[in-house]
Amino acid sequence: MSSEKRPNRAEQAVSISVAASITGVEVHTLRYWEREFDLFLNPERTDGGQRRYRPQDIQTVFTIKRLLRDEMFSIAGARRHLARILEMSKAA
């Protein structure tokens, strides 16, 4: 047996299609958001280049979705808002 602890299901990274299903955001939109929000949304990549969304990436997608669709931020406005949140979390 390996001494390395296996991550539980909640900690495991998922494919972009599973992330799309979880968040209700289409795959092509997730790819677009990765480019537009590259400072905040950076799923891991496998050696083969496939995206793997970690739980924190899923939470970031939910945040971006809320800002753009519910709160009606522009992409630039959502980027600024996320940057402020990041700055505040680093200061704390």
Biggest sheet strand line-up:
1-2
> In whole angstroms, how far apart are the ends?
40 Å
Form type: globular
Counted beta strands: 2
Q: Can you tell me the CATH class?
A: Mainly Alpha
Give the DSSP E fraction (strand runs of 2 or more residues).
Answer: under 5%
Could you report the average pLDDT, rounded to the nearest whole number? 91
The CATH architecture assignment turns out to be: Orthogonal Bundle
The number of helical segments is 4
Structural class: mainly alpha
Residues in helix, %: 55-70%
Walkthrough of the structure:
By secondary structure, the protein is mainly alpha-helical. It has one domain (9-91): Multidrug-efflux Transporter Regulator, Chain: A, Domain 2 (Orthogonal Bundle). The chain contains 4 helices and 2 strands; from the N terminus they run H-H-E-E-H-H. The chain has helices spanning 16-23, 27-36, 55-70, 75-91; strands spanning 44-45, 51-52. Strands 1-2 form a two-stranded antiparallel ribbon. The radius of gyration is 15 Å and the shape is globular.
